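Deliverable D4.2, example record:
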Amino acid sequence: MKTVRLTAAQAMVRYLANQMTEEGVPFIAGIWAIFGHGNVAGIGEALAAAGDDFPTYRGQNEQSMAHAAIAYAKQLCRRRAMAVTSSIGPGAANMVTAAALAHVNRLPVLFIPGDVFANRGPDPVLQQIEDFGDGIATVNDCFRPVSRYFDRISRPEHLLTALPRAMRVMTDPADCGPVTLAFCQDVQAEAYDYPESFFERKVWHWRRPRPDDAELQRAVNAIRQARHPVIVAGGGVHYSGATEALKRFSQTHRIPVVESQAGKSALPWDHDCNFGPVGVTGATSANAVCEMADLVIGVGTRFQDFTTGSWALFKNPQRRLLSLNVQPYDSMKHEAIPLVCDARVGLELIGAALGDHRFEAPDQGLKKDWFARADAVCAAPEGGNLLPTDMQVIGAVQRASRDNTVVMCAAGTMPGELHQLWKAGRPLSYHMEYGFSCMGYEVAGGLGIKLAEPERDVVVMVGDGSYMMMNSELATAVAMGVKITLVITDNRGYGCINRLQMATGGAEFNNLYKHTRHTHPMGIDFVAHAGAMGADARKVSTIAELETALAAARDASVPTVVVIDTDPYPTPDAGGYWWDVAVPEVSDRAEVKEARARYEAALKERR
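Output generated by the structure prediction step:
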């Protein structure tokens, strides 16, 4: 057996650079790195030597550069991924939030945090967290519950088993998610005689599991017995590349489709079978067909509470669930009839078994009424206005968008209103991280999307609260020449949670800046801040000025930031659904008591 002598870090980099997709490109497209004493000598030297064979990108914060890596994988439907490395201590701990985000959304990313010395010679090393009762625990153990696969590399030869396992998880449609390889810093620099065969190019094929015959027959029978089925399209439709299959299936059998946050854009917004967004942030059209449905067919969805109206949405007493999902864990939720398989394969097989079986065409008037109301709230105000609503901002961005536009967001007010109001014309033109709803994902996520699809026009919708949480990768986008457009809606605080606080009877408290204990008024100059990082930044006062600025952004050579003040209180007067947010049973506030009574009444509607 021929061998080659490499350090463990060199071996890891060489192996990862040779793991290929079916399209002939590396599955791991590169690595984001912030170096510290725990990874600069071993991993840093190996990455420098690899050069363009395994590109290294420098971020500003470990969490945000991981967000960029995750957004990259999401936009490419998990067909490629990126790695992220940090030092030990705070650098590693910073990435745990991003790992949780990837875990919730079933997205591949490879975390490689530095770790303590395996030989324990300098124990305790700088930044080491010592567990008084556990000699092998480190901060990296925080990754265990938020990783699909976790391993600690404490000997060079551990890579021979750990790396193939890591690749298996990241390319498995059922188990896909974040992988953590905690890499002891002394081991990174240790040499070992690795088999040359370990570094041969390997092509990873994306598995498409077929369903069990008995499960398939039960699913077909359930659909045939239904009178008013509805399809809930989740993120798995995109990950499976099943958008065309879903279109054919829904058209052939005349089954209405509603979309979760992750599933939005599975069908064009104006397709006859697309009845719009579902659930808490849903359309009246979508929620109406769900209330009536006697069979709810989930395709690639986790049935999150926002999708199901905290399980109060599906009101038909005869309602049953059929869950088509590649992951058995998801397929069995809430006593659903399981169909464990790839989404595209499952839809094609069910369609073939159903033949020409068709249902009564859904009432298109529901869609017409919904979009008339949605268009009204998104319309540009007549004569201008001094303090626009978020809905009007969305309308402006929609009018300025093109066929290649991707709109993205993650947390705050915008996700709900984009889900309700944005008209997605093609698959993957809507990128929303709402599984973890992580404030701070937006700017870094926009960078990751643009790296994944450079030809797309990426528009990042972000509130002032999320921007303040994490904005530093805007400087990275400038440095890398990655052109994205940020629309910052400044409502001077956390407007979304302030409205929820009011809806549950609470006093306005600690959300908008004017309701905090701050002794000086907050007046952040976001234009100056973004401009200091090299962006082309400007503030606009009206919707008309916003549309002009968005048009100008198309010709900009650097990232563009457009800031607009918005009213923190208005929301769409139509759509939406109940969401289970527990209201205190005891309070001196009459408003809380009233909200509690409404809450208890709503609980009775949950099934």
